[in-house]
Amino acid sequence: AYELLQACQEKYQTNLLYLDGAYSVVLTRPSTLRSGMPTYLAAATLDISHIQEQLANFSAYNNKNAFMLYHGSHTNIVSCLYSSEMSSEDISAIEGSSFPGLRTDTEDAYFLKLPQPLSDRYLAVACYSSQLQSTFVQLIPLENLRTIPNHFRNFILIYLSLFFLVSFAFALFLYRLVKKPVNDFRESFRSLGDGNFGISIIPSYSYEYNELAENFNKMSSRLEHLVRENFEQTIHIQAAELKQLQAQINPHFLYNSFIFISNMISTGDCRTAEEFLYHLSKYYEYLTRNTGDTVSLKEEYTHMLNYLSIQDMRFEGMFDLKIEELPESSQTIPVPRLILQPLAENIIRHGLDSGEEEAVIRITTSVRSQSLFCLSIENSGHITEEALHRIQRLLKENGQSESGIGMANINTRLKLYYHDDACGLEAARSVLGGLHVTVVIRREKL
Fold first, then answer.
1. Is residue 346 within a helix (H) or strand (E), and if so which, with residue range?
2. CA–CA separation, 299 and 188 (whole Å)
3. How many helices (H) and strands (E) does the chain have?
4. Where are the beta strands (DSSP E) in 381-432?
5. Counting Cβ atoms within 10 Å, is residue 375 exposed (0-12), middle (13-18) or buried (19+)?
6. Is residue 99 a contact partner of residue 77, using CB atoms and an 8 Å limit?
7. What is the mean pLDDT of each run of 10 residues along the chain (446 residues)?
8. Inter-residue long-range contacts of 115-123, CB under 8 Å, 24+ positions, other chains counted
9. Which of 355, 263, 360 is nearest to 320 (CA)?
């Protein structure tokens, strides 16, 4: 045994020997054999099962595929030592291969090319030890490597799901914190711009938002107060103008009416004088009676007809009246007092000023919608574009006439009375050639 151990040590130049299916560690004294025969030689046989257990512990994978190749001082494999859990199929494949890719020139880890069918199932990582004259090989199952991308994919899916969930929650939080308050303010300002001065914002978000909401509510309340105050002042002014109108209706009209009556009586035309006095008395009865500022459309329409009858008799043959009867369904519509007669007076004046031998004055009615009723007064003759544009601009801007009884004044009174910008006066060129004025009123007040 002494000569055998000495011969093997001299051949492989290593202290680890593989003899008779066992591994032994050989120590000599002195440590080298170059000085001749050693004083003594000691050998210790290693427990292979213990080494196999250690190899199995080296593996990080469930199937414990690890082994060690012992090849002495040469690349050729002398023996193999497998882990305790290595399958017989894998052992047969390993023992049937020479592993041409083994390296003994480096002790760094490298990938080792495996023979078939091992290469279909494993990836091999090898590391050479010069002290042991052995190569440790770790077999990594390819199916385990594939589980890493699967785990990574699952991680990515979970991460993306959490990301979108958190993003949605954050977006919802931002919407509630920023977007919704801004939308509330935008809608409130839009409503305020549409004339809804009673709008208010409920404070419920942050301190800054609540401060803005409180200031907005104060502004809205203040605007509502100012508009109401201005509206009431305008109503009072219009009422005062109406009272003044009732007291100061053209005194020349009354003076001229008395002259006409006197002439009729002096010529013996008592019937005409009687009819004239009837219309004149009804005319002044309507002006002087104190029944409030609102009357029915029938009463206002009748007052206008009395005025037109008076003027028709005074200016006999100078204009032709074409008057449409007021529909029965519209007779009870409430209207402000003295809106039709002043219009008829203006229309007559424009018709007489046109220079025609017989001016045509036409009064018609129409229904614009379910809630709006229209009454039109027009004349023949001619009106210049400049004069028509001036009247239209005056009505559009709600201008005030100097006399207080003009079309602009009537237009303003109608808008204030019905609280609707769709109501009022509209001026256009008549198909007869003169001025066409349309009175737009609501069947019911808002």
1. helix 341-353
2. 43
3. 13, 15
4. 424-429
5. buried
6. yes
7. 53 58 64 57 68 67 70 56 68 74 83 81 84 80 70 81 90 76 78 74 71 80 77 64 58 85 91 93 83 86 94 86 91 90 85 72 90 88 87 78 63 85 90 90 82
8. 117/93, 118/90, 118/93, 118/94, 122/65
9. 360
Residue type, position 142, single letter: L
State the pLDDT at residue 402: 44
The two beta strands, 319-323 and 359-367, are: parallel
Task: Using alpha carbons, list the distances in angstroms from residue 165 to 158, 160, 161, 171, 174.
Answer: 10, 8, 6, 10, 14
DSSP 240-277: HHHHHHHH-S-HHHHHHHHHHHHHHHHTT-HHHHHHHH
Q: How far is CA 380 from CA 321, 362, 377, in A?
A: 11, 9, 11
User: Which residues in 17-26 are b (16+ Cβ under 10 Å) and which e?
Assistant: bbeeeebbeb
Q: For tokens 């009586």, what's the residue?
A: 265
CA pair distance 433, 381, nearest whole angstrom:
5
Q: Is 64 helix (H, G, I), strand (E, B) or coil?
A: coil
CA dihedral 125, 129, 132, 133 (to 10 degrees): 80
Extract the tokens encoding 205. 């978000």
CA atoms within 13 A on the CB side of 334: 8
Query: What pLDDT, on a 0 to 100 scale, did the predictor assign at position 19?
Result: 59
